[in-house]
Amino acid sequence: MLQLKNISKSYTTGTFTQTALDNISLSFRKNEFVAILGPSGSGKTTCLNLVGGLDQYDSGDLIINGASTKSFKDSDWDAYRNNSVGFIFQSYNLISHLSITDNVEMGMTLSGVSAQAKHQKAVEVLEKVGLKDHMHKKPGQLSGGQMQRVAIARALANDPDIILADEPTGALDTATSAQIMDLIKEIAKDKLVIMVTHNPELAEAYADRVVQFKDGKVISDSNPAVEVQTESNYRLKKTAMSYWTALNLSGRNISTKKWRTGLTAFASSIGIIGIALILSLSNGFDKQIKSYESGALSNFPVTISQMAANLDLAMQPGAHAQDRNNRTEFTKAAEIYPFDPTSNTILHNNTITPEYLSYLDKIDASLLDGVSYSRQVNLNILRSDGQTAVPVNTSDANFMSFPSKTASFSSTYLESYYDLLAGSFPAKPTDLVMVVDEYNRMNVTVLDALGLDYKAENIGFDQVLGKTFKLIYNDDYYVKSGDLFRINGNTSDLSNLYNSGNAVELKISGIIRKQEDSPMSTMSAGIAYSDVLAQDFISKAQSSEIVKAQEANDKMNVYSGKVFAGVPGFNFSPGGGFAMGPGGGMGSGALTDPMDATSKEDALAALGAVAIPASISLYPKDFDTKEAIVDYLDQWNVGKPTEQMIIYTDLAAMVTNLSSGIMNGITLVLVAFASISLVVSLIMIGIITYISVLERTKEIGVLRALGARKKDITRVFNAETTIIGTLSGLLGIGIAYLLTIPTNMIIKNATDLNNVAQLNPVHALFLIILSVGLTILGGFIPAKFAAKKDPVVALRSE
C-alpha cells in the first residue's frame, strides 16, 4: 500500500547541510500499527512528514497504492493529505476560535462534503472518541486528553487510509496516555497507523511493528512488510475551500478580537468618512446650483442664428491654447503663419431654409413657453403729435418682437416671466407693450424716438398707455421718382401717410417688467411687438414696387442711387435719393438702413423683403422640456454633412456645464486630499494582516495538513480583509451620514441654505466597495506570504 524507496532528505542552513534521511526504504501494510523509535535528530519526524505530504523528499520515491509521487504537484499533495492522511499532533493543533465540531468538520469541508453529511460524520467520530456531550464546546474548554481525542476524531473524520501520530501522548499524563493509546490501537485494526515516539515501552506495549531510526537510517524493523508490486489504481479528489468557508473561518477569528477589529475598522474608515462628506457636500451644492439655475435660467432660450459657434470643437481641451494646426500660443519660432479667419471651423454658418422653419413649426407646442424671431426688417412706423407726423427710428426706440407660442401669439411667455405694471398684455397683432427695467427706467433715446418728454423727472403710465403709432406699407411709403424711389411726402411731416386709410394703427396696450424672482430678462427695455405683425409687413413688402425694382437691379440701390460695392466700372450716383431713411431694427443688433445698403441683399433685407429670420429663439417651459427640445433639434442633423447641419446655442447648458465643471474640479481636489488617509489605511491594513498571519501561523499549518491549498490560505486572509473592509465601509458611511446633520445645521446658520449635505446612495455603495477593495489590496502581500509558509515550520510555531 505505502512504500518508501531509497528516500533521501537533507536541509541546508547557510553553508551547513544536514542529512535527515539517508536512502531509506520501507514498506507498510494496509492496516497495522507501526511505531518509529529513535533519538532526537534521527529522522523519524522527517519521515513522518514525508509520508504525510507535509514535506517533499530530495530523491527516491514515495509510492501510494502502486502510484509514484515523483510527478506530484502542490495541488496533488494537498489532495493526498486531505484524502489519504489523518494527523494526530503532540500539541493537538486545534483551531481555537472554532468549536470542536467545526474542527472535526474542517477536513471534510475542504473535500466538498455536504453540510448535513459532514455534520453527521463529525457526530459519529466524536461519539466514537467519547466526546458526544462536548460537541458545542471550544478547544479552550477541554482538558488535554479531551483535546487529543478531538484531534483523533478530526484525523478519522475524512476516513483516511493512513493515520500519522507524532508523539500523541507527549503532553498527557500516564492514565490519559493509556486511554489515547488504546483508542489509537483500536483505529489500527482498520487503518495504517504510523506513530513517532521516544517511549520504547509505549511502542512495545501497543505497536504491531517497531522501526528503529538512527542518523537518518533504518537500523531495525521488528516486522518488515514484504514489498508487493500492485497496479496503480490510486485516484485523488482535489480539495477546494469555498469563499464562504473562508469568510466563516476568518469571521470567527475576528470575533475573538472584537476591540482590535473595531479600532482597525474605525481607523480605516476615516478616509471613507472624509470622502463621503466631501461627496455629500458636492452633491448637495450641485443640487442647490441646479435648482438655482433651473429657476434663473429656465427662461433662457435655445437660439438658432445664421452664425453659430461649434461648441463640440470650441470646448475641446486646449482649444484656447492651440489653433487647428496644433500651433501653440506665444511660440518662439521665427516664422509667420498665414491665417484665414473665415476658414475657422469653430464658427459655423447655418443655412436656415423654409424647410427648416417648417420643421421647427412641428415641434411639440407643449414643450414651449414661446418662440421669438429676429428679422432683418425696417418697419415704416410714424408717430404724430396731432399736428405733424414723423418717422420713428425703430432702432433708437429698440423695437423688438416678443416671444409668442403660436402664429396667433397666444403666448404664455410674457405672462409667465413678466409682471404687468399697467394696461394689458397684447391681445391683437397691433398691440405693443413697453418693457421697462427693474427700476422702471427707460433709455432717454427710446423715449425721444417715441416722442415722449425724456427730460422730465418721471413719466406717468397714463402718458404711455394707449399711445398710438401708424405702420405704413412699402407701396404707400415709397413712390417712384425717375429711376429711383423716394419717401411719399415731406419727411418733416408725413401726415398724409399717417392719416391715410391704408395706415395700420399700433397701440401700446401695456407696460411690463421682468418678475422679481427672475434674475435675468431676455428682452431689454424698449417696445415689443408680435411676430405676426412683422410677417404681415414682410409679406406685403415682398410684393411691393420698390422691392421688385430692387430685385431687378443688381448694380444699384434703387432708393439711395448708390452703386453697390464690388460692381466694376459703374459710378452712377444721381442726387435723387433722400438722406433720411426710416431707420429700424428688431432689437437684436444693428440693421442696415435702406439708404446705407451696400449690397442687393442688404437692400432687400432693409426693405423688409427677407422672410427667413436672422435668428430663432425657442423658450422652454423648464429644464426638462429643454432637453426634449434640443433632442428634437439634433434629429434634424442626423445623417447630414457638417456644412448642412444647423448648430444651435444653448446658453443655459453652457452656464450649467461651466458651474458643474467648477464644482467637479473642487470636489476632485478635496477628494484627492482626503484620499491620503486611504493610503495610510492601506498600509495599516497590510500591517494588521501581517500581524494576523503571525498570530495564525499554526492555524495555517493545520489547514495545510488537512489538505488546504496555498490559494485557500490566501483566500482565508483575503476573507478577513474583506470583512474588515466591509465593516470599515459601513462604519464610515454611517458616521458620515450622522455628520451630515450638524454639517447642515452649520451651513444653514451661515448661508441660509437647507439640507446641503446629501449623501448619494450610489456614492455610499461605491465607497463601501472602495473600502473593501483597498483592504483586500492592503492585505494582498501578507496573504500571499501566509500561503507560502512551510506547513512543517508553521505547525511548530507557538
Helix content: 40-55%
Overall pLDDT: 84
Kindly report the name of the CATH homologous superfamily of the largest domain.
Answer: P-loop containing nucleotide triphosphate hydrolases
CATH fold-level label of the largest domain:
Rossmann fold
Q: What structural category characterises the helix and strand content?
A: alpha+beta
Tally of helical runs: 26
Number of strands: 26
- Tell me, briefly, the overall form: rod-shaped
Poorly predicted runs of 5 or more residues: 313-322, 570-590
- Count of domain modules: 3
User: What distance lies between the first and last C-alpha atoms, to the nearest angstrom?
Assistant: 35 Å
Largest sheet: 8 strands, mixed
How large is the radius of gyration? 48 Å
CATH class of the largest domain: Alpha Beta
Roughly what fraction of the amino acids lie in strands? 15-25%
What's the architecture of the largest domain in CATH terms? 3-Layer(aba) Sandwich
Fold and architecture overview:
It comes from Paenibacillus mesotrionivorans. This is ATP-binding cassette domain-containing protein. Keywords: ATP-binding, Nucleotide-binding. There is one protein chain. This protein has 26 helices and 26 strands. The chain has three domains: 2-240, Rossmann fold (3-Layer(aba) Sandwich), CATH 3.40.50.300; 254-294 and 656-796, no CATH class; 376-612, no CATH class. The strands form six sheets. Strands 15, 16, 17, 18, 19, 20, 23 and 24 form an eight-stranded mixed β-sheet that branches. It is an alpha+beta fold. Helix 8 (243-255) crosses helix 23 (710-751) and helix 23 (710-751) packs antiparallel against helix 25 (780-787). Mean pLDDT is 84; it is low at 313-322 and 570-590. Strand 15 (381-384) and strand 16 (389-391) form a beta hairpin. The protein is rod-shaped, with a radius of gyration of 48 Å.
